[in-house]
Amino acid sequence: MKSNKLYMQMIFIVSLIAMLGSLYFSEIRLYEPCEMCWYQRILMYPLVLLSFIGLIKNDANVRLYVRAMSGIGILVSTYHYALQKIPALGESANACMGVSCTVQYINWAGFITIPLLALTAFIIIFILSFFIKKD
Questions:
Q1: Which of 3, 24, 49, 125 is deepest in the core (most CB within 10 A)?
Q2: At 106, which CATH number?
Q3: What residues form the membrane-spanning segments (predicted)?
């Protein structure tokens, strides 16, 4: 279906932008990713490949894998954002190895942090996956 291709393209673009954004922060800006950031990367990076394969093969079944990974990504990103923005939660959390998961490298407009950017991408991808219909 033609609309499936459009939604798969959108998922590919969103996941690619999220991946490139995370690489920009770590490789160009030299922000060291915390443990929770790595978990979010582990969930986001394969979405680029999955959506690309689904796009090339015109396989609507990819939506199930995309939906599952982005759904888990929503949970991880929400928890990470809560660690950063809810002081009591951040203070009581187990210590991450390396960089603290409460570090806010960016804090645009007082609330936009890297986990919120990841959360936004995961939500967009999750919603788009529901528009892809089985052939």
A1: 125
A2: 1.20.1550
A3: 7-26, 38-57, 108-132
Cβ neighbours of residue 75 closer than 8 Å, sequence gap 6 or more: none
Q: Give the N- to C-terminal CA distance of the chain in Å, as an integer.
A: 7
Longest dimension (CA), the chain: 49
Non-local (6+) Cβ contacts of 49 within 8 A are none
Contacts of 30 (CB under 8 A, 6+ apart): none
The answer to the question of residue 135 being in a domain is no
The answer to whether 22 touches 37, Cβ cutoff 8 Å, is yes
Q: What is the pLDDT of residues 59-96, one digit of tens each?
A: 999 999 999 999 999 999 999 999 999 999 877 776 66
